[in-house]
């Protein structure tokens, strides 16, 4: 009994804080989603599921859902693939018995550098990189060769791909470091045994490295999926008209912000937020369920 009271006394404060600052705001958001609240000075009126019915016919929101779905399908795959290759080269890919390529420590710092920058700084930086004139880092050499500048952020056909490229550039360094830590925990004897058995680098990567990093890859997949379902800051700061042109780069979070703080439809914005919450929750649960397996001990 005393042991239970002792444990309970330590749990009271954190559980209370969690209920007040996490669960209560979620509950409040669910309630606001069923009202027509337009701001702090207006009394909300309960309208039931009307906002959710309106959401079903909101073409702009479903366009944003499609953009998030495209990011979800490609961003984790490309980022994890690049990070795995770079981490493998930095930790295992060296010749002559080295554990990695020459200068691997410097490359780790270089890859991780984008994580030091704030998201808004990254967005403003790539605004300049993608400028459609001779001051843009990418268009300047094209124009010097007599070619037409590319509207990376002004062409609706490629604007979202430009945003995805920035998200990958920003994220890949963190996962290089994460996978490097996972590789460092794998006993060197496993790689040596594979080499003795005649395994080449590709075979060693797919038959030894990747299976032993599966738990780390699973975590990376969930985190990157959540990033793909958000992507608000990059889109809002970097793109024209905060999701343009012509809503070609808008995402769910951007539409939630727009409805709340530009159109002052807080009830409808909360309904969009509730839908986004279940999308993200469903993705995380499904990913963890499908990738569940017995843990490999080594």
From TrEMBL:
Biological process (GO), any one: transmembrane transport
Membrane topology designation: Multi-pass membrane protein
Gene3D superfamilies from the UniProt entry: MetI-like
Name of the protein in its database record: N-acetylglucosamine transport system permease protein
Pfam families assigned: BPD_transp_1
Record's GO cellular component terms: plasma membrane
CDD domains named in the record: TM_PBP2
Keyword 4Fe-4S in annotation: no
Alphabetically ordered keywords of this record: Cell membrane, Membrane, Transmembrane, Transmembrane helix, Transport
Major place of residence: membrane
InterPro entries in alphabetical order: ABC_transporter_permease, MetI-like, MetI-like_sf
Subcellular location: Cell membrane
Residue ranges annotated for the ABC transmembrane type-1 domain, each copy included: 65-287
Domain of life the protein comes from: Bacteria
Family of this protein: Belongs to the binding-protein-dependent transport system permease family.
Membrane spanning residue stretches: 69-90, 110-130, 158-181, 220-239, 266-288
SUPFAM superfamilies assigned: MetI-like (SSF161098)
């Amino acid at each position: 009994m005393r042991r239970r009271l002792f444990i309970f006394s330590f749990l009271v404060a954190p559980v209370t804080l969690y209920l007040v600052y996490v669960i209560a705001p979620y509950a409040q958001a669910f309630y606001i989603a069923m009202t027509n609240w337009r701001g702090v000075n207006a009394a909300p009126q309960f309208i039931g599921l009307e906002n959710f019915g309106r959401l079903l016919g909101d073409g702009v929101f479903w366009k944003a859902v499609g953009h998030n779905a495209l990011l979800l399908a490609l961003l984790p795959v490309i980022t994890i693939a690049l990070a795995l290759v770079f981490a493998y080269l930095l930790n295992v890919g060296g010749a002559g018995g080295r554990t990695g390529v020459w200068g691997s420590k410097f490359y780790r710092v270089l890859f991780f550098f984008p994580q030091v920058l704030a998201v808004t700084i990254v967005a403003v930086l790539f605004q300049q990189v993608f400028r459609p004139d001779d001051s843009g880092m990418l268009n300047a050499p094209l124009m010097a060769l007599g070619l037409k500048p590319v509207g990376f952020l002004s062409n609706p056909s490629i604007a979202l791909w430009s945003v995805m490229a920035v998200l990958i550039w920003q994220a890949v360094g963190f996962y290089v470091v994460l996978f490097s830590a996972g590789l460092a925990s794998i006993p060197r004897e496993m790689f040596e045994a594979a080499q003795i058995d005649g395994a080449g680098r590709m075979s060693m990567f797919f038959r030894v490295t990747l299976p032993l990093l599966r738990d780390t890859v699973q975590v990376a997949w969930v985190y990157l999926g959540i990033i793909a379902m958000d992507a608000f800051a990059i889109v809002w700061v970097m793109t024209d008209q905060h999701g343009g042109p012509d809503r070609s780069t808008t995402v769910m979070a951007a539409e939630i912000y727009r409805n709340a703080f530009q159109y002052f439809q807080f009830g409808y914005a909360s309904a969009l937020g509730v839908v986004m919450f279940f999308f993200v929750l469903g993705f995380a649960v499904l990913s963890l369920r499908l990738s569940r397996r017995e843990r490999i001990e080594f």
